[in-house]
Amino acid sequence: MLYALSVVIILYRQQGAIFMKRLYLALISLSMLISFSVVAEPFIIKPQTQGEVTFVTGGVGEDERNAMQAMRADYNLNLLFSVKGTGEYISDVKVRITDSRGNILLESVSDGPMLFAKLKPGRYIVSVEREGHQVIDKTVTVKQRASLSFTWPQEQDD
Q1: Which residues of the chain have a pLDDT value below 70?
Q2: Tens digit of each residue's pLDDT (9 = 90 or more) over 48-67
Q3: Phi, psi of 56 (to 5 degrees)
Q4: What is the pairing mode between strands 146-152 and 77-83?
Q5: Sign of CA dihedral 116, 58, 85, 137
Q6: DSSP secondary structure of 64-119
């Protein structure tokens, strides 16, 4: 450390103002590089928990979709929401998962077209609702892994 400081002092005496300008530019470049790396950090989807159920939801945009796909293997129930015929993905879907006794295990609104949940093996009813549409109920048996897709009709243009 002492050696580096003495080198800086010697260079300053030799170069004067030119050295200070270069040092100033180097510090500005370094701070810009550091701030860019913070902005460019990969998107992280955080797991949520309700009771004994851990789940993630998202999938809007390429970064979120890739993050969700990377976590898919950690969850044994995978839900996907889309528009019939177009493949357009849907978010803001109300999701309720109940067990065979009618106990509500999960109640949430999707942040994107995907919701992955970690459930104990068993039989469940998954109810989903999109604003302005009827509720869709599907029964699923989760052993190791199960996937359900929910589709809604295309909106009619007035």
Answers
A1: 1-43, 156-158
A2: 999 999 999 999 999 999 99
A3: -130, 150
A4: parallel
A5: positive
A6: HHHHHHHHGGG-SEEEEEEETTT--B----EEEEEETT--EEEEEE-SSSEEEEE-
Determine the topology of domain 48-152 in CATH.
Immunoglobulin-like (2.60.40)
Q: How many CB atoms lie within 10 A of CB 117?
A: 25
pTM of the model: 0.71
Describe the crossing of helices 2-15 and 17-39 by its angle, rounded to 10 degrees: 130
Per-residue confidence (pLDDT) for residue 92, from 0 to 100: 95
The structural domains of the chain, with segments of one domain joined by +, span: 2-39, 48-152
Instruction: Report the pLDDT value the prediction gives residue 27, as an integer from 0 to 100.
Output: 42
Q: How far apart are CA 109 and CA 132, in angstroms?
A: 15
Give the pLDDT score at 30.
46
For CA atoms 4, 7, 13, 15, give the dihedral sign: negative
Q: For residue 6, what are its two tokens? A: 């003495």
Measure the CA–CA gap between 86 and 6, rounded to whole angstroms. Answer: 68
Dihedral of the alpha carbons of 98, 99, 102, 104, in degrees to the nearest 10: -40
State residue 11's pLDDT score: 57
Q: Which residue has the tokens 């609104």?
A: 109
